[in-house]
Structure formats: C-alpha cells, structure tokens
Design brief:
single chain, alpha/beta, FAD/NAD(P)-binding domain, Enolase-like, domain 1, five-stranded mixed β-barrel, 21 strands, binds flavin-adenine dinucleotide
C-alpha cells in the first residue's frame, strides 16, 4: 500500500529539510526521505552540512583556534599558560556531540511541523496518476506518492582519478574531520574553501601543512586585493601554499609501523618535486548526488556534470519535480540551498518564491575569515563598469586592537555615478558576521553613503565597515 503526500522531499540536508518544513508550514502534507546513517545506524538528517561539512568543520575550527590562541596569543594579553595539552579524542567527541545536537534538532523540527520522516534511500519508481511514485529502501521498504517532488540529494567529494578515498590515508572532508592523531605532515590537494579550512584546523593543532593548488592564482573567485592580503597572512602563519602545480603519481605505503603518502608533482617553475606526508586530504570539488535517484525511471534530465537540470526557479523538465541545493547549478553553499528550498515550497503553494543570486554571501572560516558579497574588482573591470573603491584596515579599528586581531581590511565597491554598492569584501576578524550588513545593504540597493551615514556602535568591528564606506568618498575619519 502506498502512502500519499502533497509533497515528497528527497534529501534532508539544508535544502531538503528546510523545504519540507516550509511546505508543511504552508499547509501541505509532507514526507522527507534521507538515507544518512549515524555511527549506530540510526537517522542523521542534516546532510553534508550537518554531518561532514559546515557544522563539524566550524566546531573543529573553533576548538583549534582556542588551542592556537592559548599556545601563541594568550601571552600578549598577559596570560601565562603552562602545561598546555591537547586531548584530541575529547575535541573530536565535542564536535560529534555538536553534530548530534543538530541531527536531533532537525528530527524535533520535523515532529513539530508534522513532516513525516523516512530513513532510507528514495528513488523514482514511475510517474503515477497525477504525480510520481517514490520507493524508499530503508529498514522498512515503503512506497510513497505525491504530485510534487523536491530533489535535494546534495553532493559528494570528488576523488582524484586513480586515487580513491580510503578515509585513512587519502581523506575526503569526511575523513579530514576525524583524523585520530595530529599528523606530523599533512598534504592537501586543492586550495578552495574546504582545503583551506581543513588545512587551518590541522596546522593550528600542530601539523606541518602543505597545500597544493593546480591553478596559478590563489582564491580566483575572491577579490584580488583581499586574496593577496589573505595569502600574505597564511604564509606568515606557516600554511605552505604552492600554486600552479601539476600533481602526478600518488603512492600510499601502508606499514604497521608508519604509513605514508608520497606525491609526485611538478611545481610552477616546472621542477619535479616529491612530497611525503602522513595523511593526504583531497579537496578538488564536489559532484552532485544523482546516482541513487533513478532519474531514468521518469525521464528526469541531468546536465553533463550529472546535476539535475533546472531553470532559475528550480523547475526541472518534469511538471511537479523540482530540485534545489548542491544537486543543481550555482554555488554549493548551505544557505543557497535553504533559500532555494523555501522558494520552491512557496512556489508549490502558489506564492512568489524568490532567491536573489546576486546577494548570496560567501565565507571562508579561516583566521582571518574571508567574506564577500556581490562583484569583485576584477569582475567590474572585466565588464567595463565605472566604479569607486574604498578600503579600511582593521589596524585602525579600536575594537580590533582591543581584540588583538588587526589583520585585514573591509573593501567597498560602488557604482561611480549612482554610488550603489556593487560588492563588499572583507578579510579579517569576524568577517562572517560583518558581511550580513553588506548583504542587507545590497538587498535594499543601498549606496555606500547610506552605510557611511548610519550610526555604528563604538567600539565595534562594524565601524570598519562604515569607514570603508566613507573611504569610497575619500573621507575616512580614523585613517
Ligand atoms: C567540509 C565542508 C565544509 C562546508 N562548510 C560550509 C559552510 O561553512 N557554509 C556553507 O554555506 N556551506 C558549507 N559547505 C557546503 C554545504 O555543506 C553544502 O552546500 C550543503 O550541505 C548543501 O545542502 P543540500 O541540502 O543541497 O545537500 P546535502 O547537505 O549534501 O544533503 C543531501 C542529503 O540527501 C541525502 N541523499 C542523497 N541521495 C539520497 C537518496 N537517493 N535518498 C535519500 N537521501 C539521499 C544525503 O545523504 C544527504 O543527507 C561545506 C561543505 C563541506 C564538505
């Protein structure tokens, strides 16, 4: 016997679980299917974000930052630390507890909103009268039907051809978040967000980290001035980043006494280099999860990357089938997935769902953090836009001095004629929080003068945002 719903959501990551809750809030009968298992084999909704992405990485970034501060920066505040030690199993246990709280929180939210949760793999069986039949393969096989299906099956780490992840020596983000002992030498392939965040965690805990990047430029998507500033700081911290390398053979030697990974690569000067490490993290991008979905059963179209093909409004080629988050085009970010999930639920309910792709913030949670919204200076130059720029360094911000973290800057880019803000770029303390003001400003089409005229609390890091806005008009007050 099949169970009938108004909406079936496949995947309970940030895209799927938020879509399910919003659809239920709008009065629909909703099922959400997710196959992720916790260590005990039970359900672990929340997807990549909760289980092996945003949440555990931020838990470890926080713990490792505390450790780094105690080891290197407390002395600046007149605090002496002796006998500092690292209890890695406890640190990893705390991270797992944070993940569990989030898993349980989502199950609670499903109950509260009357979303029926199914633990197992959901796949298309066939088009049914007025909708679709979805098979759930889990502890108890189920058949569900609905007129509306939202695919939110997310993404998985991309492996390097010929070097599969074993999560012991060759690690994806999953293994990188649960290394049992601090590796003396850690190699990371890929200097994107995940590579830099994972590299930062283990460097702070004592690893000698080398990051190998194939592209010749560092953080190509980031504003050049901000990326250059960040690279300078990472170099000073001892994070070794080699750009323009070509990775060759990777050999894993597993030995009872001591295992190692040897990477052969050609550096930017064309020299052959051999690098030996205790662990290797590969973070070279992510691939959409569509393999278990059986899209052929209903003729759901995928693009050449294997992502579900959607339009601007997340509609697929099939009436009543939608797709959101990492499994479709666009940035692989949890908040982008959530926004799409909400918008799709509202469109199904006949409302005007809306996602503004121009104001999606980006954050890299290294220290210093890097955050931005809107266009970079190089993008503005490329499209021939007339713009004004203003920057303000945290070095001249009272709160940053009090914190003892004066690295980086805030940068504003505004239209030369109308002064409308076109982009805001930050490298520095709490950039992830500061960027929210810029997102609001851009959503409301504010000018840099609008921000410059707003009263910001003193002393606060947000004064650097106001000062950067003032700098657009060449009238900073504190620099
Ligand atoms: C290390 C790391 C750190 C990150 N940090 C950040 C960050 O700080 N900020 C940020 O915005 N983003 C971050 N991301 C990216 C973020 O995790 C993703 O963009 C986000 O999780 C995408 O959400 P989603 O709902 O589309 O998919 P996912 O979170 O991948 O969830 C998809 C879910 O669907 C399930 N599923 C797949 N196929 C099926 C099926 N057939 N049946 C049933 N269930 C299925 C999966 O098991 C999974 O639970 C990070 C990613 C990584 C790897």
């Amino acid at each position: 016997m099949s169970q009938a719903f108004d909406v079936i959501v496949i995947g309970a990551g940030p895209g799927g679980y938020i879509a399910a809750i919003r659809a239920a809030q709008l009065g629909m009968k909703v099922a959400c299917i997710d196959e992720w298992k916790n260590a005990a084999g039970g359900p672990a909704p929340g997807g990549t974000c909760t289980n092996v992405g945003c949440i555990p990485s931020k838990a470890l970034l926080q713990s490792s930052e505390h450790y780094d501060h105690a080891a290197h920066h407390f002395a600046d505040h007149g605090i002496g630390v002796s006998g500092l030690s690292l209890d890695l199993p406890k640190m990893l246990g705390r991270k797992d507890a944070v993940v569990k709280q989030n898993n349980e929180g989502i199950l609670y939210l499903f109950k509260k909103n009357k979303v029926t949760f199914f633990h197992g793999r959901g796949s298309f069986s066939k088009a049914a009268a007025g909708g679709y039949e979805i098979a759930v393969q889990g502890d108890k096989p189920e058949t569900l039907t609905a007129a509306q299906v939202i695919v939110a099956t997310g993404s998985s780490a991309r492996a390097l051809p010929g070097t599969p992840f074993d999560e012991d020596m060759v690690l994806s983000n999953d293994g990188a978040l649960r290394i049992g002992a601090v590796p003396k030498r850690l190699a990371v392939i890929g200097s994107g967000v995940i590579g830099l965040e994972m590299g930062s965690v283990w460097r702070r805990l004592g690893s000698d980290v080398t990051v190998l990047e194939g592209l010749p430029t560092f953080l190509g998507a980031v504003d050049e001035q901000i990326a250059k500033e960040a690279k300078k700081i990472f170099d000073k911290q001892g994070l070794k980043i080699e750009l323009g390398v070509k990775v060759g053979e990777i050999k894993v030697a597993k030995k009872a006494a001591k295992s190692s990974v040897t990477l052969a690569y050609t550096n930017a000067k064309g020299e052959a280099v051999s690098l030996e490490a205790d662990k290797l993290i590969i973070s070279i991008g992510r691939v959409p999860n569509t393999a278990g979905l059986n899209p052929e059963a209903v003729g759901l179209k995928l693009d050449d990357r294997g992502a579900v093909l959607v339009d601007e409004e997340c509609r697929t080629n099939l009436a009543g089938v939608w797709a959101v988050g990492d499994v479709v085009r666009g940035p692989m970010l949890a908040h982008k997935a959530e926004e799409e999930g909400v918008a799709v639920a509202e469109r199904i309910a006949g409302q005007h769902g809306h996602v503004n792709f121009n104001t999606i913030p980006w954050v890299i949670y290294t220290s210093p953090e890097i955050a931005w919204v809107g266009e970079t200076e190089q993008q503005l130059k490329a499209r021939g836009a007339a713009y004004k720029a203003g920057t303000f360094p945290f070095l001249a911000n009272g709160r940053a001095r009090a914190l003892g973290d004066t690295t980086g800057m805030v940068k504003f880019l505004a239209d030369a004629k109308t002064d409308e803000i076109l982009g805001v770029h930050i490298v520095g303390p709490m950039a992830s929080e500061l960027i929210a003001e810029a997102v609001v400003a851009m959503e409301f089409k504010a000018s840099s003068e609008d921000i410059a005229r707003i009263c910001h609390a003193h002393p606060s890091l947000s004064e650097a945002t106001k000062e950067a806005a003032l700098a657009v008009d060449k009238r900073t007050l504190n620099f």
